[in-house]
Amino acid sequence: MLITGFFGVLALLSWGLFLFALFAFIDSAIRREDAYRAADKKTKPFWLIVLGLAAVVMKFFSIFSFLPVIGLIAVIVYMVDVRPALKQVSGGGRGGRRGGGSSSDGPYGPFSR
């Protein structure tokens, strides 16, 4: 009974890691190619290959292998370093500046000092 529960938790963890890698892959696929160059990061095809391989490894290899750990490290690097830089360059993120506002604009217009 205990072993069955343990392997159930590992299966859920494996699925969670796969979905995390899949999210990172889809996110990298929808970003513009020039944003990668502007953010001074590796190219879009590089990240698509790395994150795609990470998702495949996390889906088909045991969580006790070292390959999912390497894939997880790649996904974390993308999510913590590359993704925020791409969002900053392309003006994305919460609230974005699509309306052409300046950095001193508040939610209802410019801050008065």
UniProtKB/TrEMBL annotation:
Pfam families: DUF2516 (PF10724). Signal peptide: none annotated. The keyword Ion transport does not apply. Residues 87-113 are annotated as: Disordered. Keywords: Membrane, Transmembrane, Transmembrane helix. It comes from the Bacteria. This is DUF2516 family protein.
